[in-house]
Amino acid sequence: TKKDFFTRICNVRMSPPPSVYAHILVHITTFFDSVNESLLADVLKIFAILGSSFALECDYSALECDYSALECDYSAEKNKVIDILANKKFIPSNSGRWIGISDWPIIADDRRLERIFDGVSINHVCLGEKELAECCRVDIKNVIDFLVMVGAKRLTESITVNLTMEEFRSCAFLENYVSCVIKYIQRCLSSEFPVIYKYLVDDVEILKK
In degrees, to the nearest 5, what angle opens at C-alpha 147 toward C-alphas 142 and 85? Predict the structure, then answer.
């Protein structure tokens, strides 16, 4: 076909390689000082293109870009993109300014946690509203995959959740009852759920032999 002739024989690209998109991204975020809705839409599109380009690693046959015809090296191109963006401020933040990886950008992948940390000095990545992504036909998953690839962190992976018991009250009746049946509970766990029993005894040390 004509497509095969130009792509495989003449080495004509179907679309620019990821490193070209990275340079375009740097140009946009350097030329414009602050983030607006139009710029955000363009930047998210580039993020999504880069995210989809690297999502399947070397399975280039599944990508929209015909990298198989060019025998593009996945690792080399990925490292090239990371090097281009390493010291640049190319990520839109909720504060309306561009930030870089050195600013510790955080992807708010949990709205509940995002509200908890609202007002705290954290550089949240601005991903826009859901309507913006749908209007621009941007796959947010590809956007997040790209941001994680270059070094951004998900909020859920950046915090430690410690469960605490609220409004604890001592109940003498229940404590006395459990103390009488604890040996039967141990026998049941030991015979029916040996793995759980061993975990409790060896690691958590709640139960004793």
Answer: 125
Pair 90, 26: CB distance under 8 Å: yes
Question: Confidence band (pLDDT; 50, 70, 90) for 149?
Answer: very high
Rounded to whole angstroms, the Cα distance separating 146 from 100 reads 14
pTM: 0.66
Question: Distance of CA 25 to CAs 29, 33, 38, 92, 126, Å?
Answer: 6, 13, 14, 11, 16
Above pLDDT 70, what percent of the chain?
Answer: 84
Euclidean distance between CA atoms 35 and 157, whole angstroms: 26
Place of tokens 């281009």: 84
Please give the single-letter amino acid code of residue 76.
A
Report pLDDT digits (tens) over 75-108: 788 889 999 999 999 999 988 899 999 999 999 8
Query: Residue 87 corresponds to which amino acid?
Result: N
Q: Which of 122, 98, 115 is nearest to 30 (CA)?
A: 98
Secondary structure of the chain in HEC code, one letter for each residue: CHHHHHHHHCCCCCCCCHHHHHHHHHHHHHHCCECCHHHHHHHHHHHHHHHHHHHCCCCHHHCCCCCCCCCCCHHHHHHHHHHHHCCCCCEEECCCEEECHHHCCEECCCHHHHHHCCCCCCCEECCCCHHHHHHHCCCHHHHHHHHHHHCCEEHHHHCCCCCCCCCCCCCHHHHHHHHHHHHHHHHHHHHHCHHHHHHHHHHHCCCCC
- Cβ–Cβ < 8 Å for 15, 67: no
